[in-house]
Write a structure and sequence with these properties.
mainly alpha; single chain
Length: 124
């Protein structure tokens, strides 16, 4: 049961963290100037956006949950199984960020989910 909870935490918190960071970075605008001082100004603006810190905290939770999971299971099982975050990311980008997700991308997500199901079945 703990392993299932950790998978859930890894998939959900990593995806939520990526969505939060994406929203934060979109709120400050596209980075077009890569000179050191311009990058420093961009970083300064980014760290002032609260949702960025939420995203970082969620990604930290995912990282430490992944460490716990890797201590219990084989990496050949954990890494492919956590690929469900791709499906969660596509869904979350559609729902929370209002992004358009093309049919071909949904087909790719379906293939990833089928792959995860095969990995789960072959765990034995």
């Amino acid at each position: 049961m703990l392993k299932v909870a950790l998978f859930f935490i890894v998939v959900c918190s990593s995806t939520a963290g990526e969505l939060c960071i994406s929203r934060a970075m979109k709120s400050i605008g596209e980075v077009k100037d890569f000179r050191p001082m311009a990058l420093m100004r961009t970083v300064w603006r980014a760290v002032q956006v609260g949702i960025l810190w939420v995203g970082l905290a969620l990604m930290a939770a995912a990282f430490f949950s992944m460490l716990m999971l890797l201590s219990m299971e084989n990496v050949s099982f954990v890494v492919p199984a956590t690929a469900l975050s791709y499906a969660a990311g596509a869904y979350g980008s559609r729902v929370f960020l209002g992004e358009r997700v093309a049919h071909l991308r949904w087909a790719g997500v379906a293939l990833v989910c089928i792959g995860v199901a095969l990995v789960w079945q072959g765990k034995g």
